[in-house]
Amino acid sequence: MENSQEEIEAGARILMDSKKVVALTGAGISVESGIPDFRSPGGIWTRYDPTIYATLESFVNDPSKFWSLARDLHPLLETAEPNLAHLMLVELEKLGKCEAVITQNIDNLHQKAGSGVVLELHGTFRSGKCVRCGEKCGFEELEEFTRKGSIPRCGSCGSPIKPDVVLFGEPLPPHVLKKASELAQTCDLMLVVGCGLEVFPAASLPILAHRKGGKLIFVNVVKTAYDHIADVVLRGKAGEVLPKLVEEYRKLSSTGASQRRHC
Ligand code: APR
Ligand code: ZN
User: Could you give the CA distance from residue 68 to residue 73 in angstroms, rounded to a whole number?
Assistant: First the structure.
């Protein structure tokens, strides 16, 4: 179902009136880059049981399950390129309308697209550490193991290495969550793009922004449980909707500027 012009215009007007804009993104923003999300039909958790493949407990008991999932996803993550949605957030940043991207994704596509401030709530695959002694492991070493699907082991004590991604049952990086919460409480607009809003504490960020009087624009192909608190819901693929929103904002800001020039 196409968004009405009124909905796009309403979103552009909110962007126009907002001084401090942040984006919260989920797996949905990377689907058009070829990376499946988790809970849509065909999503990763419909094919791999997260209680077996992606909890801290399952990792410590049998890291081979996680690493086999990492190996299966590796080709997608290695070849994926940012899509128009990632690029539109960079465009908004250049227009002074996106001061940070808070992402749940670990695909590095916001950084590849050129976003200046990316807060990775669920960690990163770019580094890892030993589950026992904490010895660090660099990206190249991790890449090698991920490609082979073998279990990286610590050079010092031989225990499994875990990438710095947040598994279920693990706390989010405290400094990242603190910064993300501060942004949620102080922004006057949060763009929520491709988020299922089923996993906390990430899903609490739009609620926090709403509670503090921030506006919310949701971009999603389906309804979420929190659509009722959004000021504007743009239904559709992020790579198709965000360019329309940015184009409408540009039109509005140029007419706004021209009106200011004449008066
Ligand atoms: N454009 C916009 N939204 C999309 C698109 C698209 N092209 N494709 C899918 N979506 C939406 C889906 O409708 C869904 O609401 O993106 C959302 C993705 O939801 P999830 O699959 O639950 O992913 P996410 O919200 O990122 O999950 C949060 O859960 O499993 C953990 O750590 C994992 O970071 C992940 C977290
Ligand atoms: Zn070790």
Answer: 9
What is the pTM (predicted TM-score) of this model? Answer: 0.95
44 or 257, greater pLDDT: 44
Evaluate if residue 205 carries a pLDDT over 80: yes
Q: What is the mean pLDDT of the chain?
A: 94
Q: Provide the pLDDT for residue 138.
A: 85
Give the span between the Cα atoms of 186 and 166, in whole angstroms: 25
Q: Which architecture, in CATH terms, is 36-79+123-165?
A: 2-Layer Sandwich (3.30)
Query: Residue 180 Cα, ligand 2 centroid: separation in angstroms?
Result: 31
> What residue ranges do the domains of the chain occupy?
1-35+82-122+173-263, 36-79+123-165
- Assigned token pair, 234: 């743009």
Q: Averaged over 127-133, what is the pLDDT?
A: 93
Instruction: Give yes or no for residue 116 having a pLDDT over 80.
Output: yes
118 C-alpha to center of ligand 2: Å? 29
> Residue 4's pLDDT is what?
79
For domain 1-35+82-122+173-263, the CATH superfamily is: TPP-binding domain (3.40.50.1220)
Q: How far apart are CA 131 and CA 115, in angstroms?
A: 31
Whole-angstrom distance, CA of residue 54 vs CA of residue 43:
14
> Cβ(199) to ligand 1 under 6 A?
yes
Strand 118-120 and strand 100-103: pairing? parallel
Q: Does 86 qualify as catalytic in the annotation?
A: no
Whether omega for the bond prior to residue 50 falls within 30 degrees of 0, making it cis, is: no
201 cis-preceded (ω within 30 degrees of 0): yes
